[in-house]
Amino acid sequence: MSYKWRPCLLLMPALLLATADEAWKDKQIAEWSEADAKQVLSDSPWVKTVTPTLNRSANDGPRRSSGRGQGGGIGVGGVGISLPGIGGMGRRGGIGGPGAGGGYPRGGQTGGADDRGTTSITPPTLTLRWESALPVREAELKSRDTGAPTLDEDHYAIAVYGVPERMAPGISQSQANQLKKQASIKRDGKKDLKPSSVQVLQRDDGPVIVYLFPRNQEITKDDRRILFDVQIGRLQLAQSFYLEDMVYQGKREL
Predict the structure, then answer these.
(1) By residue range, what is the domain housing residue 72?
(2) Do 194 and 180 meet the contact criterion of CB atoms below 8 Å apart?
(3) Which residues pair with 48 in a beta bridge?
(4) For the chain, percent helix, then strand, then coil, each to nearest 5?
(5) 142 within some domain
(6) 167-172 contact pairs (CB < 8 A, 24+)
(7) Cβ 24 vs Cβ 36: under 8 Å
């Protein structure tokens, strides 16, 4: 009899561990520990870790032009931007998919020379965080994150962490406006949501780019999946968020 029960006993630690990893879900915010808060900020439905694709078609030197047509681009921090089209919304996840590893050095790049003698760059691992969601805001307070973005109640906010410092070294207003043009929230069968503004926060651990979308363009219960589509310098990504997962204490939090 003991032999037959052994497989079940082996599964129990894994089940208990999975429950412990999401303990914050069953607690009131006031009961969260610092470990709960860090879990919300690193591995929860409001946070995605992605490796963007790298657009190698743009020139290395800084350049600036208008429009989203083929061959167009601007310079952000000396890095050219090219603007290829984005296709339809894909499966759970996004372009590039979830990234492996734990971050990217500030201003760093890796790789060697390609067959044309130019330096190849490995895309950084980025973290996307739905900043305006109540659990995220409360987790930032609990973890004493004094550098968290300052927001108002009139906007949804999505922040991008891990952008190399060389790609966002004090972005000018005109460059911020261009970043705004190259971002959207896509929904199946509905008009894209465009950000009303973009903020670039300079922090000790590197720049944070915050996209603000007006809440008067409401994301409704019919929007089961949304796609955050953005281009920053040569970095392109399109990451899905699933609203059925973005729930705390029975209420959807955006």
Answers:
(1) 23-84+91-103+120-252
(2) yes
(3) 128
(4) 20, 25, 50
(5) yes
(6) 167/76, 167/77, 167/79, 167/207, 167/232, 167/233, 167/235, 168/76, 168/77, 168/200, 168/207, 168/209, 168/232, 169/77, 169/207, 170/200, 170/202, 171/76, 171/77, 171/200
(7) yes
In this prediction the pTM is 0.70
3-state secondary structure of 13: helix
Burial (CB < 10 A; 0-12, 13-18, 19+), residue 165, is middle
**Overall number of domains in the chain:** 1
Q: Provide the residue-wise pLDDT of the chain in tens; the chain has 254 residues.
A: 444 444 444 444 444 444 456 789 899 999 999 999 999 999 999 999 999 998 766 443 333 333 333 333 333 333 333 333 333 343 344 433 333 333 333 344 444 444 444 445 788 899 999 999 999 999 999 999 888 888 999 999 999 999 887 766 666 667 788 889 999 999 998 999 999 999 988 888 888 999 999 999 889 888 999 999 999 888 899 999 999 999 999 999 99
Residue 110 located in a structural domain: no
> Does residue 159 lie within any of the structural domains?
yes
Q: Which two tokens stand for residue 34?
A: 């610092």
14 sits in the region (left: phi over 0; alpha: psi -120 to 50; else beta) called: alpha
Q: Do the domain assignments include residue 165? A: yes
